[in-house]
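Below is how a single chain appears once it has passed through the pipeline. First comes the sequence as given, then the structure the pipeline wrote out for it. We keep one example in the README because the format questions we get most often are answered faster by looking than by reading.
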Amino acid sequence: MRTMGRVTAMPVRKVALLALVAVLPAIVPAQQRLSTVRVHVPAVVRNNARADTLDARAEALYGLKREWRSAAQLHRRAGQLRGDDPRSVQSFRMAAWMYSAAKDLGMARRMMVSAAERAAGAGYLEQAAGSYVDAAYIAVADNDIGELPSLLRKTRLLVDGPLFPADRRASLLERIVKAPQIAAAWEGTR
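Resulting structure:
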């Protein structure tokens, strides 16, 4: 360092460093440590992703007759995972058809009723009514006609409502009258 009279000259770097050290205690507390950010993925998203995987695994089994029951179970689990998501209707319908193909008509009917209930809950009246009629056909195939009145009463409530499209009502009624047992039970629901 050179002395020039009473003032000591310091290199610019040292002066800057000393200035920084002098104000550092005031700067450090002003800086906040960032908190950990957690991303919350709703259970519905996680469950739907898992359900998509289960549905895909089930579809991969369609070509193997001995695996149809497994495919049905995968679709059923997918439908349950989806909860109130409208896509649960399709999962339950596919479970019903796979149980039907595996000759478990009781489970097929229950899955079709689950599909109908989910569709009705989501406001898909046509899908709900169609699924109830499909469940009625499965019940007839299983010789379980005791279920017909209940299934067809639920169908009638949907079909006779003001929001049900007239053209869809006609096509659904055509399906009902094609099967004598279902037609007779349908007349009994009036």
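The CA atoms of residues 156 and 189 lie 8 Å apart.

See the next section for the split statistics.
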